[in-house]
Amino acid sequence: MKTFLALLLTLASLFSHEIIVGEQDEFNITPETMYYVDKNSTLQNRQEVLAQVFQDTNETKLLLGYQFDATLWIKFTLSNPTDKVLEKIFEYDYPTLREYTLYDLNSGKEYNGGFLYAKEHPETLSQPIKLRFEPHSKRDFLIKAKSTDTGLIAKLKLWNIQAYYAYENYQQHILFLFLGAMGALFLYNLSVLLFTRDSAYLYYVIIILSFTTLELALSGYFHFIFHEYEVRRLHIYLLLNVMVFGVIMFSIRYLDLKGNLPRLYNAFLIMLGSVIVVTIFSSYDFIPTKVHRLYLMLTFILVVCTGFYAMYKKIPQAKYYIFGWLMLLLFIFITALTQIGFTSLMQNYPYVKKLSIFLEALMFSIALSARIRLLEQEKERVSLELYKQKEEESQKFELKVTERTQELEEALNDKHLFLQEVHHRVKNNLQIIISLLRLQADETEDKVLQQILGESENRVKAISNVHELLYQNETLEHIDTQVYFEQLCQDIKSSYQNYKHAKIIVDTKPSLSMDKAIYCGLIVNELITNAFKHAFDSDEGEINLILQKDEAQNFILMLR
What we know:
CATH architecture of the largest domain: Up-down Bundle
CATH class of the largest domain: Mainly Alpha
Largest sheet: 7 strands, mixed
Radius of gyration: 55 Å
Structural class: alpha+beta
Strand content: 15-25%
Distance between the termini: 155 Å
Number of helices: 14
Number of domains: 3
């Protein structure tokens, strides 16, 4: 065993760089290390690994992209040239790394880390390893790391214990602050969704949840809270699919592509289907993960370009849309390029991703509020136009009613004149008949015949008076019975010269229609005639003619 360890130390010391361990609070040792990538994970023991040709890292963060079948080996030497015992925290700063092993080649000890061991470190986001360095000592280390679900990345740090826990506490505060801010925006948009029933808010709530969940997973938050949780490739693909679905459907609804840009509406539906197909093929390794991520980035670029086109088309809410997606596109580019292994943008500004997500969520929350305001303004505009249209229609209708009323009034006047003319002619015809009866009575000397002709003349006069009154009245509907019966009684009285001192008192308040007036006139004619013939012994007397209407609207004619 001792011979084996000595051989390992010899091999390690031939190619490793010696890193001086000092008293600094934080020390990124990654640039001073050497690495080797076993692409198919064929090497079985450390002796075989150390026999391989290692490369100098020379990077503050080693980015190897998606290499799910590969194993990363890193070797380095730590030296304590001081007279003090130094205690340090070793941190593999990549929270979503599934598992890694740190081999102490001098003592043969092995230290395990990665999110599989999160439950052993419940108070930290990462899995710290405590190392003790004796004065004037030198120790050789070898790291074995493998990532089966996310990009293969390495960033190695040495911390003073107190500084590490202070930084860890600060990280947790930032994470909880981010979670609280996103939670507040989520609840705000959810409440607006429940209040307005606008599907744009539903899709945006989905976007907030998916992006927040993705960032929390990549930040190690889930391992910190749920120690048994493991980040899986399937989970990442599911989150990305949900995220793309939310983004595309939100874009369709928010910009109203179906109404404003129908061609882009169809293009977005096709794009959504293609992303789902590419994701499915990529999850089964038919399409490389790198191609899938680049395709997603291209999708988001097209979404942003759609925003610029919508602004060119003068869609009011497009400016909010563009700014919001530019913020989100920053997060996507940083995450995707880091995972793919192209570059580690903003590594000196670790909170840019969280800030970009928050600003995007904040901007779209403001944009959705502005959308409500625009919809209210549009509603007011439409209501005003509708009101004006109703006013115009009302004026047109009133004009038509006035014109039609005038036409009807003219027609009614014509009818009234026509009926007056008819009554006038009927009265004239009846007057001719009366004149003929009077001539006939003058030619005969038979008293009985004269009396009969005089009574007939009175009967015709009763009818003629009705037509005369209708001709003279403003209305043709009813006859003033008081005037009619007074005139009728006076005509009858004048035909009986022997009863000049007889009084006829007429009290007839109700008005009558033409047909009823004729019938009543004939009845009254007979009654008055009979009264003059049979009721008086002398030339003096009194006749009372009364016409009333009872509660049942029946006419009562009385003569006494």
